[in-house]
Design goal:
The structure holds two protein chains of two kinds.
Chain A (H helix, E strand, L loop, with lengths): L16 E7 L7 H12 L7 E6 L14 H13 L4 E6 L7 H7 L2 H5 L2 H4 E3 L5 E5 L9 E5 H5 L2 E5 L1 E5 L3 E3 L11 H4 L4 H5 L2 H11 L4 E11 L7 E3 L3 E5 L2 H11 L8 H9 L8 E5 L2 H4 L15
Helix pairs in contact in A: 1-2, 9-11
Chain B lengths: L11 H7 L3 H11 L16 H11 L3 H18 L6 E2 L6 E2 H13 L5 H13 L7 H9 L25 H12 L10 H14 L13 E2 L2 E2 L4 H10 L7 H14 L5 H13 L8 H11 L5 H11 L17
Antiparallel strand pairs in B: 1-2, 3-4
Helix pairs in contact in B: 2-14, 3-4, 3-5, 3-14, 5-6, 5-8, 8-9, 8-10, 10-11, 10-12, 11-12, 12-14
The chains are: A alpha/beta, B mainly alpha.
Chain lengths: 304, 328
């Protein structure tokens, strides 16, 4: 089970990470081919493994800027199956909206994945196990976590590239809030807020570190994210096997300094690489694809 | 599937799925019951408090055909109650405010309730205050009031989802519906105050323009978007204040949204709520049938229970509420 294999590696003992940036102008582009090429290059070890794709679904969204786009999710599912995965399931536990099926139907996920009772697991209401957290940054010493996540061989965090009004940005690491089930903690998962969002992000990711991350930055959100901001067409997909390196790269693309983002700084101590010099950049360069995001006044200090 | 479909082209079983009755969903619930008497969130999952409570509340309306089922469910709920009176969330360890209210409500709805379990549960609920009430929080909040991203009256405390967190709309609404269903003489002493504060808190959290979201109507000055489920439960908890402006706005918002809902849970809950408010709601059997064909409701036991409730007579616990009229 992936949670027992989580690596907590200090920076001095860590090999560099590879992160790919791919230009994707819009969702009508051949996302499937682009992601397949990217994954062939990055070669995630998924042969004969059960893969769990964890997108970011928050609430129904008519403008397509809140939730991970189904085109990207379908492309990831197909790519991992082509790489030899034994199974690929999509799983998420929305944080604000109890009606998960309502979000899925608004996103037309059934058109992309087929009948959802087979293709999708609602992490808010899955069977849970109590698991001790591997770090104790927050006061949470243990978490209830869903069986689908704990039993998966390979967890892929698939966030939307967005600003966040409490922690600055929400990317691959913050997206893992969604594995914490509403059936234990409510809608929203307010226990995590009271325990400190930045600290909880570290505790969750140290316990279930995503094995891979694919960020949907084709259209993201700037300003008062993660739900009340404005759409931001960054036109990129960002992928890699180190969620810290992926998030740091996304932050740079958003015109931010990752070292000034509290939870990323914490995560870089144990979970992955943040310095540019420790990240091998594949595909496009940051300089060519950077599109600074508008930030709330409270987060001006994290801008480059 | 369109409303003009020829139902007679289908077998009885297919027709049941296309235009399901409350009995169709009740039967799904009965078949999903675990051997221990409880229900999981999906068939086959370990029993948990919330789905068990919803299943009891849905099947109680059909008591004659559900006697044995309800007895074993009631036994499961009773043994699941924690020592302090609360019920656990599905972790089996942590108490949950919302599941405690729902478990008590399930007992209240049964003809022979376990008075002891209800008394202990309501006592625990009334003694459990949200964390924004504690002194440290109030001092810190007062100090940073100018910078606060959310502008709401934190002295109006309802209930959190779990102890030691903030008040939110849905758990507050569940607790209010429970307390409204308990005879004043047998309520805990703090109940009247908690009802008054809880109702005021719900009105304070109403979204500008009508309806409710999880509980943050304004963040950084931007109005929140109302959502079906919190709006339904807030309105049901406030059903004895039907003339209040925010109630009327909420009902209007819900009525407008009801036409375009794409999922069984929201549709069933909205339909149930509008019936309580005497608003004509369109027949929903065909839509529920189509939703069931699409995704089998994601196998969600609460969604199946809400569908059954929506298609049946109004349950007694949503009947005339009580005694707290004019509290606002």
């Amino acid at each position: 089970m992936s949670y027992s294999n989580t690596r907590l590696v200090p920076p001095f003992n860590r090999s560099p990470s590879a992160v790919a940036i791919r230009s994707v102008p819009n969702y009508e582009a051949d996302v499937e081919a682009i992601l397949w090429e990217t994954l062939q290059e990055l070669r995630p070890p998924v042969r004969d493994k059960s893969v769990l794709l964890k997108p970011n679904f928050v609430e129904p969204d008519m403008e397509g800027m809140i939730n991970t786009h189904p085109v990207v999710i379908r492309a990831a599912r197909e790519a991992f199956l082509r790489l030899g995965a034994k199974s690929v399931v999509v799983a998420e536990g929305p944080g604000h909206e109890r009606d998960t099926e309502g979000i899925l139907e608004q996103l037309r996920m059934r058109d992309y994945l087929g009948p959802l009772d087979r293709a999708f697991v609602d992490l808010n209401t899955d069977e849970v196990s109590q698991v001790s957290t591997r770090t104790h940054a927050s006061r949470l010493k243990s978490l209830c976590l869903p069986r689908a996540v704990l039993a998966a061989d390979f967890v892929v965090s698939m966030p939307k590239m967005k600003t966040h009004h409490w922690v600055g940005v929400t990317l691959a690491l913050k997206n893992m809030f969604g594995i914490v089930p509403g059936s234990c903690y409510g809608w929203p998962k307010n226990v995590l807020h009271w325990a400190g969002i930045s600290k909880s992000i570290l505790d969750i990711n140290s316990t279930v570190r995503p094995d891979f991350a694919i960020v949907d930055g084709i259209v993201g959100m700037e300003g008062n994210g993660p739900i009340q901001g404005k759409p931001k067409a960054s036109g990129v997909l960002v992928a890699g096997d180190d969620p810290v390196a992926v998030d740091a790269t996304c932050a740079r693309l958003m015109g931010l300094v990752p070292e000034r983002i509290d939870y990323l700084k914490r995560a870089a101590l144990l979970l992955g690489n943040m310095p540019e010099g420790r990240i091998e950049q594949l595909g496009e360069t940051i300089a060519n694809t950077r599109k600074p995001f508008e930030m709330l006044p409270t987060f001006q200090q994290i801008r480059a | 599937m369109s409303a003009g479909i020829d139902l007679y082209a289908f077998s009885h079983q297919e027709r049941d799925i296309l235009t399901p009755s409350h009995e169709f969903f009740a039967d799904l619930l009965r078949r999903a019951q675990n051997a221990d008497g409880g229900w999981g969130y999906r068939p086959g999952l370990p029993s948990a408090t919330e789905p068990t409570a919803w299943a009891v509340l849905a099947l109680q309306v059909l008591e004659e055909s559900s006697g044995k089922t309800l007895t074993s469910a009631s036994n499961w709920l009773q043994q699941a109650q924690m020592r302090r009176g609360a019920w656990p969330t599905s972790s089996g360890k942590e108490p949950g405010c919302w599941v405690t209210a729902l478990a008590c409500l399930a007992f209240v709805s049964l003809k022979i309730p376990s008075q002891d379990a209800v008394n202990q549960g309501t006592k625990w609920l009334c003694e459990t205050w949200p964390a924004e009430g504690n002194l440290l929080w109030r001092l810190r909040h007062r100090q940073h009031k100018e910078d606060s991203a959310v502008h709401q009256d934190h002295s109006l405390q309802g209930w959190g989802w779990t102890p030691n967190t903030a008040s939110w709309v849905e758990p507050t609404a569940y607790a209010l519906i429970l307390l409204q269903n308990i005879t004043p003489g047998t309520r805990p002493s703090q109940a009247t105050r908690r009802i008054e504060l809880g109702e005021k808190m719900l009105y304070d959290r109403a979204c500008p323009g009508g309806g409710w979201n999880a509980g943050n109507p304004l963040v950084y000055g931007v109005p929140g978007v109302p959502r079906i489920s919190p709006t339904v439960w807030a309105l049901l908890a406030l059903r004895n204040h039907q003339d209040h402006a925010a109630t009327l706005e909420g009902v209007e918002w819900l009525h407008q949204r009801c036409q375009n809902l794409r999922s069984p849970a929201s549709l069933a809950l909205a339909h149930l709520c509008l019936r309580v408010y005497g608003r004509t709601a369109e027949a929903i059997e065909l839509k529920l049938g189509a939703f069931y064909s699409n995704n089998q409701f994601l196998q969600s036991v609460p969604a199946i229970a809400w569908a059954s409730l929506a298609l049946n007579d109004l349950p007694c616990w949503l009947g005339s509420p009580s005694q707290s009229r004019d509290a606002i």
